[in-house]
Every structure is written in structure tokens, then in C-alpha cells.
Design a protein that fits this description.
This protein has 384 residues and is of the alpha+beta class. The protein is built from eleven helices and ten strands.
Amino acid sequence: MPRNIYDEDHESFRSSVREFVERTLVPRAESMIAEHSIPREVWLEAGKQGFFGLTIPEEFGGAGIDDYRFNAVLAEELSKFNAATSSCFGIHSDITAPYIVAMGTEEQKQRWLPGVVTGEKILAIGMTEPSGGSDLANLKTTAVRADDGSGDWIINGSKTFITNGHQCDLAVVAVRTDPAKGAKGISLFVLEKEDAGFTKGKPLDKVGQPESDTSELFFDDVRVSEDRLLGPEGMGFISMMQKLPQERLGNAIANIAGAKQILQETIDYTKERKAFGQPIGSFQHNKFKMAELVTKVEVTEAYTDACVVAHAAGTLTAVDAAKAKWWAAEVQCDVLDECVQLHGGYGFMNEYRVARAWKDARVHKIWAGTNEIMKELIGRDLGL
């Protein structure tokens, strides 16, 4: 069934992203895995291509495009290459930058956004804490006023599992500014890597997505002035709740695009690999299995596309984004597990893309809010 959510402009942009992937990412695929990071020159090249400034206003160097479908195209094409690059770039431009665009003062936007667009300033967002997981309302990291009357803030605490954490130049960090107000006592600050007391842990040793420098962030009496507060004090939790649907939709887009790509490569593989004198794809069990997988992917893609259209129109609900996120993550993991099985022993070898994709995908059931949290949100919406 043809997809009809993209027009000629979107497909032209898709061609540009594909060219970037082939020219810049594919030749560096192995080195990025070995180095556990995406090199700075790749970030800068992506910035030159305009990939980081799609929705950032023109006065700050961006394209100022009010059409989320371009973001979706970028996520799809990067995810076909690998999950880690899509995640790192997405955290930078599709998840963190919108906080600065929506909540920053003119001075803050002038100071930070031009470098975000060019890839010179890599962004990370610090929500998750070692003891909190998906419980964002229970943050332990604090920001208190300095007692010298300067109006400065002193930040203490830590964050964990932070994508782009080791390389980031700027981190948007959620902290508790008023313990008595619960979720309404959470605020957002922007920290710069040079800030005294702001340190980064070594890249964490993950099961998958080795190209992503996921790290811990530590704040030991980090003193910042009032101009580092992003948006009004106490609006951090509300802002995160408003922005999380886009993060979850982006996750769904990437998940299903990655699964679809590896499934097609698996179908091609089953046409070539022979056992008992015939292609393994011709065996009825395998044929039926791939029919199931293709159907599951295309039906999930159709729902995700509907969410993309809704988000572009400003009508996507948090509940529908939650549905897309958990279901796409579930489908991706199921599909890739079957693809590994269809590859046989080769599917367990790191040299095969299917094995890497299988490992990379597992975290998608966890981040951006666990699948269990997504189901809780949907259940509450049902009045349960």
C-alpha cells in the first residue's frame, strides 16, 4: 500500500539525507563502533547539510520549517543506517533544541542556537536519574539560590543514561528548585561544559548502540547565573510533558523504519541462502513468517504515519504518541528477533547488520518512557 504523507519536497530532502548517509556515515560505520562515538566532523557535516536546523527559526541560522514531516524523513533515513546515529542526532535537534526554541529568551537563543544548527554545540538533555528511571516527577538533583544575595543558583546531583552525554557542549537539565511543590517545583537549566563542577562520566558500556556516547553527568556545586534558567521557574515538569510526545513519536518513527530496513535485507537473504537444495525463503514456515512480519511492519507504519500527520497539524495527543511508541518498539524487537532466527548462526555474528540491529533495538522498550509507562498512560485515558 503506497504511503501518501510525503510530497516532492520531502522526497527531495530524503535523497539528500540518503546521500549524506552513503558519503559520510557508511565509510565510518566500523570506526564509530570502535571509538564509541560519532566524530565531530560528522556532526559538522550534518550541520552543513542543514539537518540540525529544520525547525529552528531563520534568525538563528535554521530553516524555520513548520512541518514535522521533514523531521520524520530524517529519522527514517538515519535509522535505516543504524539506531545510534538517529538517536544522537534526534536528541540534539529533535528533542533538546525545541526546549531552547520554545522557552529561551532572545539572548539565550542568540547565544546557543546558531551553534546547535551548525553542529558546533552538541546538545544533551538530562532527565533520567540513577534512582528514578521513568519517574520524572521524583527528581533528586537540586538547584538552590546562593546565600550571598547574587541571585545565582547552585546545582547538585547527577543524571544517568544521557545520550550525547560525553560529547555534549550544552545540557538541558531538569532539577528540583522547590521541594515543597512536587512536580510543580521542577525547573530546567542549561549547563555549559566549561561550568565548574559539571563533569561527565566515561561512555557507558552498553549492550547495543556502541556508536552513541551515553554517559553519566555529575553536578557538584555548579554555580550558574539566572540567565541559565530556561523558561519560568517551576515550569520544567510541565514543559517536559508537553515535549515528550514528540520524543516518543520520533522514537516510533525510527523504530519502524529500522525494522523495515532489516526485514527487507532479511527477505533478500532468504532468497539467496539455500538449505536442502532450495532457498530457505521458499519453505512454507519461513514464507508464512515473513508474510506475518511484513504485515505487522506495514500496519504499524500506517499508524505511525497517521501520528506524523497529526503532529504536523498540531493535533497529536500524548496518549496516541504513547501508543505509537510502545507498539513500534514492541514490533521492532519482535521483527528483529525473527530476522536473527532466519539468518541462523550468522544472525548471532556482530559482523552482520541484523545482529547489531537486534542488540540496538532492545533499549527502545525502555527509553523515552518504558513501554509499561506508555500502557499506564493509555490505561488512565480509558478511565481505568
